[in-house]
Amino acid sequence: MSHVANVMVSVDSDDRSGVEELSRWLQTAAPRRGFGPGAVGWVGSLEETTGGNTHWGGGKYPECDVYAGALNHADLAGLVAQVERISWEHPESVQLFVMDQNQAYFRVWMFHGAELRQIVPEGREEG
After folding, report:
1. Which residues contact 125 (CB under 8 A, 6 or more apart)?
2. For residue 95, which of 74, 123, 65 has the smallest C-alpha distance?
3. pTM
4. What is the pLDDT of residues 28-40, one digit of tens each?
5. Which helix (H) or strand (E) holds 85?
6. What is the pLDDT of residues 59-110, one digit of tens each?
7. Residue 33 carries which DSSP code?
8. Is 91 strand, coil or helix?
9. Using omega within 30 degrees of 0 as the cis cutoff, is the peptide bond preceding 121 cis?
10. Which residues are 72's β-sheet partners?
11. Phi and psi (nearest 5°) for 34?
C-alpha cells in the first residue's frame, strides 16, 4: 500500500544546490511513515519543472525555479524540518508546497527569519 504526497519547492536560481541536497536526502535518509520508529530511506526525489525547455503559459520564462515530486511514505513533518535545516542562499524566496494523500489543497510553508512556518491554509486543517 502506498501513501502519496505531492511536493513542490520554489526557490531562487542560486538555491539549486539546496534543492539537490533535499532530493538526495529524500532518496537516502528521509524518515519513512508507516515503517516503524527510525525507518529511513527512499521516499522519492524532486525534479526541476522549470528551465530552458519549460512550457509555462505567457510570453516570458519563470523568474523562479520550481522542483516537484510525488513522494511515497514520506514523513511530512520530517520533510518540513529538513527544508528548515538547509542553508539556503535566499531563504526569503523558498516556498514549500505539500498536498498529502486525500487532501484537496496544498499547504504552503515560507521562512520568517530562520523559522519555516506554514502560512496557508489558515483554519482549514482537519480536526
Report:
1. none
2. 65
3. 0.90
4. 999 999 999 899 9
5. helix 76-85
6. 777 889 999 999 999 999 999 999 999 999 999 999 999 999 989 899 999 9
7. T
8. helix
9. yes
10. 4
11. 85, 10
